[in-house]
Write a structure and sequence with these properties.
Elements: H1 3-21, H2 28-40, H3 47-60, H4 74-81, H5 85-100, H6 108-120, H7 126-143, H8 153-162, H9 166-182, H10 187-197, H11 204-220, H12 244-259, H13 270-287, H14 293-296, H15 301-329
Helix pairs in contact: 1-2, 2-4, 2-13, 2-15, 3-4, 4-5, 5-6, 6-8, 7-8, 8-15, 9-10, 12-13, 13-15
Length: 331
């Protein structure tokens, strides 16, 4: 593993230990996700600040709020990373209220969408992006009523934030969906990947070819996520100025190294989340590299932003699904 990747991996594991040592009782997945968010920022967790932010959050929302429960650790982490934690959560809650106004469903994925909009969108654009996100969701749900649900909301918001023309972006995403689906991907995998690929810079056919080739190479190397919505983690690598062989080698080395660390094996986060993290750490290292100019330009801030949101969404889906399954089995 190269020095930059090793340093990033070391920081992730060090952040894990700091959060775990502080006595937080959250699941392994949540602790690791919180550690990853600090690693993206190149920061060391301030556990007292996280605890203070949790108290602020509890003072603002009830126990059944969608900002508590499963998100009850990640939201304070996001607050702690902000310059003004109280203003951060106040702004996020206003966005959430706009997202859920009227007939649109509520839920934890809408809370995550509000977090994404707060993180990525200038304040003066937030109302516009909320309106576009609601409209884009309605249009996608009309086109794919069974397929489109709350789990798509964060990626839909990303398209609305980053796409200069939402009509064109939605048309591109739909064309990519049709092509991916025609090449054998499930509806869920096709839709998730298509929304991310719509934001990358390359001709449509090349995007699909490169995306599927990268996934196939990772699968052959035995370091790919399952062939489902988690595949979207590899879409931001399309079009970056790093060879496919290098990407596969780097992700594979990070995945192998993480597997040997406490909490990243089968009894910890499990294979899918670990491989999401391996891809995320790799892309984050490319973006922050101090190497040659092509390497520094290899992954844009846009690509890394997308990766962060995908990791959060898929990890939360896994956690929520596990909680729902446990609840169902206990009835």
């Amino acid at each position: 593993m190269n020095q930059a990747l090793q340093a990033k991996c070391d920081q992730l594991v060090a952040n894990d230990r700091i959060i775990k040592k502080a006595g937080f009782l959250e699941s392994t997945n949540l602790v690791k996700l919180g550690s990853l968010l600090y690693t993206f920022e190149g920061a060391t967790p301030d556990v007292e600040r996280i605890k203070a932010c949790r108290k602020i959050l509890k003072g603002k929302v009830g126990i059944f709020s969608n900002f508590r429960g499963t998100l009850g650790f990640i939201v304070p982490v996001k607050m702690a990373l902000a310059d003004d934690p109280e203003a951060y959560i106040d702004d996020t809650m206003k966005i959430y209220e706009q997202l859920t106004e009227g007939k649109l469903f509520a839920g934890e994925m809408l809370a995550m969408t509000a977090l994404a909009i707060k993180d990525l969108c200038p304040a003066e654009r937030s109302s516009e992006v909320v309106a576009k996100t609601r409209e884009a969701y309605a249009r996608m749900h009309k086109a794919h009523p069974i397929l489109t649900n709350s789990y798509d909301m964060v990626l839909i918001a990303l398209m609305c934030i980053m796409g200069s023309d939402i009509d064109a972006t939605l048309a591109t995403a739909e064309a990519l969906y049709e092509e991916l689906h025609a090449r054998g991907l499930s509806g869920n995998a096709s839709q998730s990947a298509s929304m991310v690929l719509a934001l990358t810079d390359a001709p449509a056919e090349q995007k699909v070819d490169d995306f599927l080739a990268l996934y196939a190479a990772l699968k052959d190397a035995k370091h790919a996520t399952p062939r489902n919505g988690s595949m979207a983690i590899y879409a931001p690598f399309v079009g970056i100025d790093v060879s496919r062989d290098t990407i596969v080698s780097d992700i594979s080395e990070v995945d192998t190294w993480l597997k040997g660390q406490k909490g990243y094996g089968a009894m910890g986060v499990g294979k899918t989340v670990r491989r999401l993290f391996a891809a995320a750490v790799t892309l984050d290292t490319y973006e922050g590299s101090a190497g040659s100019a092509p390497t520094r330009a290899a992954a844009s801030a846009v690509a890394q932003t997308i990766v962060e949101q995908i990791v959060m969404v898929v990890t939360m889906i896994i956690i929520i699904s596990a909680i729902n399954a446990a609840s169902a089995s206990s009835r």
